[in-house]
């Protein structure tokens, strides 16, 4: 049986509308107040997030104080238990396949002074005379490197390792090279007489070297084409960037071009030892979570006491004829050195780093004029390519 609700009278209807109106006004006022407050908090949070993001990008990661607070908050969250995982910087994996006699001991010494300050893992291999590896050795080494606690820097005298070949995460690669003749002379006399760390250092390094070889005149070695002063022994720097293939150890265009391409594709920075302070400044800018404050440490008295002990002793300069022969034998090494130096200067300009006065070259004879012209031409070519890339990027934005 259907029932009908009695219609509201005018009096009841008007009272009902007044109550509803009061409730609506009260609700509108509450919503308005909540909306303004929420809007203020949202805008404030957005502003803080934007400023934090900018600071994070400029600083290369979260501030150390913030990381420390988060680290210890995780420890005391429940009063006991293991520490919470740390927030890792990016990049957190760095490989420095250091080239012999190119300032590597200086960099490793600085890293040992930085490791506790910045809380990263440093593995510095003591293997110095095994730069070429079999495929199995490469795979094992790459896996060992990849399982190192992050963030880490792994450093060893070893030719370039291609992680992607073994389907492993690609780390960031860094390195330093120097003028090829300077590198050769430093190595030649270091093998014979060591450095200032001890009188018997050279005996430990080359215990089987006979006196007639140890005291062999550098000019005789070069001009009479002793194996140590001829190719392929002089083809030394390029294989560190070309890689592990046998062709990388054969002086020629293929190894040179492969090394150049690897620098462009895999290396964050390849510096030149002649401009070491600029190298350290760039490392501070590009990898602050590893190298922050490294230049101040390098200039400190504490470092100088240790760093001055690594200089090679009894070095001699070959005569002009020997230098000419040496330079011609190292043609590809100088082409690569000029390429790296030009790239390094380009990176400095992109970062906004103004170079200080360049040190004079140790060998300013006539045979280097062609080398200087090639370096100048390459620098102009790189600047043109960089300008074209910038214009193309502008057109697409």
Automatic annotation (TrEMBL):
Claim: Transmembrane helix is one of the keywords in the record = yes
InterPro entries the UniProt entry points to: Heparan_SO4_2-O-STrfase, P-loop_NTPase, Sulfotransferase
Q: Where in the cell is it found?
A: Golgi apparatus membrane
Query: Per the record, a Pfam family?
Result: Sulfotransfer_2
Gene3D superfamilies membership = P-loop containing nucleotide triphosphate hydrolases
Q: Which domain of life is it from?
A: Eukaryota
The positions making up the signal sequence are none
Q: Which SUPFAM superfamilies match?
A: P-loop containing nucleoside triphosphate hydrolases
Q: Which UniProt keywords apply?
A: Glycoprotein, Golgi apparatus, Membrane, Signal-anchor, Transferase, Transmembrane, Transmembrane helix
Q: Which GO terms describe its cellular component?
A: Golgi membrane
The yes or no answer to whether the keyword Metal-binding is present is no
Biased composition range(s): Acidic residues? 377-397
Span list, region Disordered: 355-397
Instruction: Select a single GO molecular function from the record's annotations and give it.
Output: sulfotransferase activity
Membrane topology qualifier? Single-pass type II membrane protein
What PANTHER family does the database record attribute to this sequence? HEPARAN SULFATE 2-O-SULFOTRANSFERASE, URONYL 2-SULFOTRANSFERASE
* Family, similarity comment: Belongs to the sulfotransferase 3 family.
Q: What is this protein called?
A: Uronyl 2-sulfotransferase
């Amino acid at each position: 049986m259907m029932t009908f609700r009695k219609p509201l009278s005018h009096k009841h209807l008007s009272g009902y509308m007044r109550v509803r109106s009061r409730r609506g006004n009260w609700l509108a006022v509450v919503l308005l107040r909540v909306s303004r407050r929420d809007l203020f908090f949202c805008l404030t949070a957005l502003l803080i997030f934007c400023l934090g993001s900018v600071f994070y990008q400029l600083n290369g990661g979260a501030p150390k104080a913030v990381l420390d607070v988060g680290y210890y908050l995780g420890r005391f969250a429940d009063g006991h238990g293991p520490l919470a995982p740390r927030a890792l910087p990016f990049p957190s994996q760095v490989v420095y396949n250091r080239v012999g006699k190119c300032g590597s001991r200086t960099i490793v010494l600085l890293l040992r002074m930085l490791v506790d300050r910045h809380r990263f893992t440093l593995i510095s291999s003591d293997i110095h005379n095994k730069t070429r590896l079999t495929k199995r050795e490469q795979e094992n080494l790459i896996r060992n490197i990849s399982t190192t606690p992050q963030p880490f820097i792994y450093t060893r005298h070893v030719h370039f390792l291609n992680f992607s070949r073994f389907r492993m995460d690609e780390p960031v690669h860094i390195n330093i090279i120097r003028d090829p003749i300077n590198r050769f002379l430093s190595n030649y006399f270091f093998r014979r007489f060591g450095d200032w760390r001890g009188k018997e250092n050279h005996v430990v390094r080359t215990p089987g070297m006979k006196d007639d070889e140890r005291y062999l005149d550098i000019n005789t070695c070069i001009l009479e084409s002793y194996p140590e002063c001829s190719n392929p022994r002089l083809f030394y720097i390029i294989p560190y960037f070309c890689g592990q293939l046998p062709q990388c150890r054969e002086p020629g265009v293929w190894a040179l071009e492969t090394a150049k391409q690897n620098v462009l594709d895999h290396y964050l920075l390849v510096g030149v030892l002649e401009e070491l302070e600029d190298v350290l400044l760039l490392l501070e800018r590009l990898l602050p979570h590893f190298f922050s404050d490294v230049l101040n440490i390098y200039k400190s008295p504490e470092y100088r006491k240790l760093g001055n002990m690594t200089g090679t002793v009894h070095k001699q300069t070959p005569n002009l004829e020997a230098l000419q022969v040496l330079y011609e034998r190292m043609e590809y090494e100088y082409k690569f050195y000029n390429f790296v130096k030009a790239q390094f200067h380009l990176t400095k300009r992109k970062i906004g780093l103004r170079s200080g006065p360049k040190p004079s070259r140790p060998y300013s004879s006539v045979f280097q004029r062609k080398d200087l012209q090639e370096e100048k031409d390459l620098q102009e070519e790189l600047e043109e390519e960089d300008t074209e890339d910038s214009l193309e990027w502008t057109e697409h934005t």
